[in-house]
Design brief:
Layout lengths: L6 E4 L4 H11 L6 E4 L6 H12 L26 H10 L8 E4 L2 E4 L18 E2 L5 E3 L7
Parallel strand pairs: 1-2
Antiparallel strand pairs: 1-3, 3-4, 5-6
């Protein structure tokens, strides 16, 4: 098992986020869990995460269950900097879960995307909360 730190920006109310946490634990690692709604990352950290993921800022915005529509965030005139300020002001706008490992930083939707950046292999079979199998008895991706 590697002692490298894995950080999960987590929302325990989100099934995808819970599945990602379970997959990380299934690799024998207990991640640092940041419940970003209680402890938002702040602007500098958010800028760093988005840069590390190599994604456009707009792809990190969550629309469902957020003030996205009332803030009219689909307006193309908002700059990346302004969109990041909205995510800092309203952490629920930050899509999740975001995972940081020694192998990379990724928005893990779908949850099995985390497997691409976990340093340690899966230790046991795993199925998502909805029963969909992800890892077989040999620890391989299904």
């Amino acid at each position: 098992m590697s002692d490298a730190t894995i950080t999960l920006f987590h929302n325990p109310a989100c099934g995808t986020s819970r599945n990602v946490l379970a997959l990380i634990r299934n690799s024998g690692v207990e991640p640092v869990i940041v419940e970003y709604l209680k402890t938002p990352p702040g602007k500098d950290k958010l800028v760093e995460l988005i840069a590390a993921m190599g994604m456009p800022v707009r792809s990190v915005l969550r629309q469902k269950g957020t003030p996205y529509d009332e803030l009219k965030l689909d307006d193309p005139t908002w700059t990346d900097d302004q969109l990041i300020d909205f995510m800092v002001a309203h952490p629920i706008l930050m899509n999740r879960p975001i995972v940081v490992t020694p192998l990379g930083t990724r928005l893990c939707r779908p949850s099995e995307a985390v497997l691409d950046i976990l340093p340690s292999p899966q230790l046991a079979p795993f199925a998502k909360e909805d029963g969909e199998p992800v890892i077989d008895a040999q620890g391989r991706r299904v």
